[in-house]
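Worked example 4.2. Below are the chains of a multi-component assembly; read each line carefully before continuing.
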Amino acid sequence: MDEARLMRDGVERFARSCLEPHLATVEGYPGAVPAEVIEGLDALGLRDVDVSDAGGRMLLAQALEALASHAGSCAALALADIAARALLTDAPAGRGAFPLYEELRHADPRLLVGSVGALPHLAGEARMVVGAPMAAWLALPAGGDPDGPATHLAVVSTTAPGVRVGAPIRTLGMRGAHAADVVVEGVAVPRCHVVPLDADRLACLRGPALAIGAGLAASSLADALAYARERIQGGRPIVEHDEVRDMLAGMRAAVALCRSAARTLCEDPSEAELFVHAREQAARAAADGVQVLGGNGYMEDYGQERRMRDARQACFLFGRGTELRLARLVP
Amino acid sequence: MRDPRAEARVGDFERDYPLLAWLDERGLGEVPALADAVRRSRAFRRAHIDPAALAVEREAARDPAFVARDVVGAAARYGWFTMMVPRLFGGQGLPLGVMMIALEEVSAGCLGLANLIAVHGLALSTVGATGDVRGMARVCRRLAASERDGEPALLSTAITEPGAGTDMEDARLLRTARLVSEARPVRGGYLLSGRKVFISNGSIAETHVVVMPTDRSRPVETMAVFLVDRGAKGLSIGRVERKMGQKACPAAELVFEDCFVPDTDRLRGSSVATRVLDLTLGATRGGVGVFGAGVARGAYERALSWAQDHRIAGRPALEHAWVRATLVEMRRNVMIARAAYLEAMLSNDLYGLGSVLRPGLIERAVRHVPDGWLDGPMVRRLVEDRRVTKGLVRRIAEMPEAEVGVAAALGAHAKVTGSDLGVRNSELALEIAGADGLRHDAGLEKLLRDAKLLQIYEGTNQLNRIEIGQRLVTEVPHG
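Applying the procedure described above to all two chains together yields the following structure tokens:
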């Protein structure tokens, strides 16, 4: 418990002193994430949490929720690094990047593994690799059959000859978690850098990933509630209007659902339907947050439209909802 | 000579608008014009909206005051700004339905550009609903002349205030609204003070239609409509907003500091807070429903196109039953949104603003008069005769409340239906395209950002639901 509080306190300190002053820069496009933000994020030690253990995952989920309540994209950036590491037994040093929005079981490998001499040889591309522009290395799905699913995970250095990381892609949300396309042209890597893909190891991050939605929904609720108590319409605060109260109640339920579902998923990551349903509710809560704020919610300076975009983008972490849902019953 | 009726038979019109095709079979004379609007506006969208949409949005994201002048110019050549304007005032005098159907096409391409070139409809509706014929003539003639010159004098409508958005659009809420604006009567006119916010095209309009009370403590009784030209002393443009979407249409703050408006520029007519706003919003909320149907269709078309060209999990996307089922759902949503706005359009024509502005005796009398003669001194005298305005104002005031209410409610119905389904289809399009859909360059994520505003402006959907309830479901005041 103390460990969790310490980590949450660390996140709050980082958010207040390091992140908030740079938020507009981080979230803008074309944006830049200052080095001190990256360093501050790395210093939180999230990548050192043992995610093979349910307790570690819960700890991570609480930290990511706290982080996302300030900036969803910082939480996504941390998650990309953690996801890349979760799939490897010996991850390289430095920050890693990972295509967070792919369903790895079904991803069409655009990165093909061949062999030249004794070494595996990589050629092709990977799309929307989250954190690639600020990473030391990339963990990319790969395979030998262009028509079959990805079977391996390849690790390549961002500075290796033949590896080209594109410019940050303008995306719906999570704009501070720069995603980029990566082209790999005939790069030989050590055998230990091409490992069989174990998608279950990634599934164990569903709880922490859902916590990002929980953080976005919770901060949406807090702002919407404060606004609804202040804003007068028809001579009374809008919080007294049934329609607004109903939205706030739904948002509150979404926060509770996401937190509870995140805990369940940390224990049992196989509950894909719960993962998909809960994050959808988080996206709805963030959109309702815009609605409660009305025209103000639609404007960038209130910050709520960013939460709406981030929460919708979070609905694609580890793949489309429909794919994840259908795959559970008929693998 | 092209026969639009024949084209309607062979084009997509019958498939997309079975109700109108059926009415055409029964001899409704206006349908060929609607079919022609579909054909022409599709060509306009392909030539000027689709190719520009993403680039304009990126430019407007960099500079919120950016305006796609070339699209405005192309719209002027198309005759976009004078479709609704009566021929008597230099316009085309086309039925409201033509504008709506054309608007669906443009909205399917880009909601921001659609708003940029169509939001003058809100101003024209507000002016028309007052019944002030001289004011209508002034606004319409300037718009028509400028359109002919290729540089349309755009209009904005200033209603929303910093502390009162939805409040301004409902007489019951208006009574207690926290207004900061007031038009204080002075000798020869009024001094306008206060702020109006989120005004679409506010930074670029040549004329602002400003809705403001003459006594802030009695807004329902004293709400009035003023025409204020760009550059008027005491009027300045405040901040231009950075919005989540619909970036192609700038939203600006108008700041009034003792801005003098002469008596002649206050429009005379029925009660603004009740009848004028009911008629206006009945028409324009239907227009938001059209926006919703358009973006729902844009999402459907783009998702279908993506699915035709991409694979999911090693198979062509369209081979997945869930993808096909989702596309069917999206198509169904388009049809529902379209049906809702067509109902609103017909109801508006029967009981709402459309019935007020429907070509009357004078318009029918001048149907065969050449355009040049309509600008002559005799017609001008007729238009500016106070008795003509008085007659129209009386006609508006005598419209049965129940009928106006039905038109207003069906406008709200179209707005809620279209905007909700527009948002829903945007979400479904993203689901089909997966990670690809999150990228700006795929043209899908923009749909969701654009569509969200439809649930907010012209009264939030929550307020619109209350109004539908009060007008169509129960008279019991909402608690």
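Take a moment to check your reading of the output against the notes. Chain B touches chain A through 54 residues (CB under 8 Å). The longest strand of chain B covers residues 189-200.
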